[in-house]
Design brief:
Elements lengths: L4 H5 L1 H9 L6 H11 L7 E5 L5 H7 L12 E6 L9 E5 L5 H10 L5 E6 L9 H22 E12 L4 H11 E9 L8 E9 L19 H5 L11 E4 L37 H8 L12 H5 L13 H11 L3 E2 L2 E7 L2 E5 L4 H11 L11
Parallel strand pairs: 1-2, 1-4, 2-3, 4-5, 6-8
Antiparallel strand pairs: 5-7, 6-7, 9-10, 10-11
């Protein structure tokens, strides 16, 4: 595939580069805001697991160099270094550490946040049960630090994986928020189990004291949990948001050509990762150091013949293998006898013998050799 293949298959990836967003996930937060208006009246915002920064861009109202800055004070937190964003304060820290929570509140001059968003996700393993569990633990870690920095009645938005045990997460979130809604943005692929929770009306249990050293929902909150009713103890509304007549994240769209040009111009991503964890693996792959060697005795190894060291090396392995596999043509009173490749015979004459032999050898992935009959 060419470099433009992803542009063609993923319209949101292409639009993100054209409009100056660092990642296509920016459209997910924009579509969340379209339906829930989560930015209304907000003056202090925390973006957890912020890298590469597209959600911070959305909150700050920044679109490339020509954008307008938001009046909100924004703090972005991530373990990885992130390129600067105008109007955004960055903290490179761990969301499971109490010191990170203190640093966030310190930037708000002792005040608490109106809105906390988190688009973090683990590196998926392909084992869905494990991926769902790790994502759930990341969500609980984000919820834990949120209880330290979010004001009462505040809003919390986070990514979830909708696995078979997701109702437990809904119940846990319902303990801390008066309204929990699950939604699927239009820009999120239908094939993905990804969804988002919008938790509104932060109202922790009476007497709850945020504490990083203890797990959430300790035994003292069993009473609150047991008040929930129904087979799953809580019913969480599900809402598909985004313009249904807009772009479909699972469709392929034709590339848009610039005026006066007949070919598509590929745009580089707005901001590449500074030091991605996969950088070394990419370098090894470019150096062909990640290819797996074929095992001895495998069909691919047995089928491929050894290339002769020279064009006249016909007594070695290549010549013998060619004789056995293709059927060596021999001279007779009527010309040359038939050779065969995979059961398909060919008739040779003195004029066509050399060309026919090399055709056979090419089918066997052997370099062209000198005619052994001549």
């Amino acid at each position: 595939m060419g470099r433009s293949s992803k542009d063609k298959r993923d319209v949101y990836y292409r639009r993100a580069k054209e409009e100056g967003w660092r990642a296509r996930s920016a459209y997910k937060l924009l579509q969340i805001n379209d339906d829930f208006n989560i930015f209304e009246g907000v003056t202090r915002v925390v973006d957890l697991c912020a890298a590469p920064g597209s959600w911070s861009q959305v909150v700050a109202g920044v679109k490339g160099e020509a954008g307008q800055k938001s009046q909100a004070k924004i703090v972005a937190v991530d373990l990885q270094a992130m390129a600067p964003i105008p109007g955004v304060i960055q903290i490179q820290g761990d969301i499971t550490k109490k010191s990170t929570a203190h640093a966030i509140v310190g930037h708000f001059e002792g005040e608490q946040a109106d809105l906390v968003v988190c688009d973090g996700a683990p590196d998926v393993t392909g084992l869905h049960d494990i991926d769902e569990y790790i994502q759930a633990q990341l969500l609980l870690a984000a919820l834990n630090i949120t209880t330290h920095v979010l004001k009462k009645t505040g809003t919390f938005v986070a990514k979830i994986f909708r696995g078979k045990d997701v109702t437990l997460l809904y119940a846990q979130l319902k303990i801390f928020f008066s309204l929990v809604t699950v939604f699927k943005p239009r820009s999120s692929r239908n094939s993905s189990i990804e969804a988002f929770v919008v938790c509104q009306g932060y109202s922790p249990p009476e007497g709850y004291i945020p504490n990083m050293s203890n797990p959430l929902l300790d035994q003292q909150y069993d009473v609150e949990f047991n008040t929930l009713e129904g087979p799953n103890r809580v019913i969480v509304p599900f809402l598909a948001c985004g313009d249904l007549s807009g772009f479909d994240s699972d469709m392929t769209y034709p590339l848009e050509l610039e005026a006066g040009k007949s070919t598509y111009s590929y745009l580089e991503p707005t901001q590449s990762p500074i030091n991605p964890p996969y950088k070394e693996a990419c370098q090894l792959r470019r150096s062909d150091m990640l290819s797996k060697p074929a095992l001895p005795g495998s069909p691919s190894v047995q089928a491929k013949l050894v290339e002769p060291q020279s064009s006249t090396d016909l007594t070695g392995t290549a010549g013998k293998n060619a004789d056995e596999a293709a059927g060596r043509c021999s001279e007779g009173k009527d010309g040359y006898s038939a050779g065969a490749v995979g059961g398909d015979s060919h008739d040779c004459t003195p004029e066509t013998h050399s060309a026919q032999l090399n055709t056979c050898l090419k089918q066997l992935d052997i370099s062209e050799v000198e005619d052994p009959i001549k």
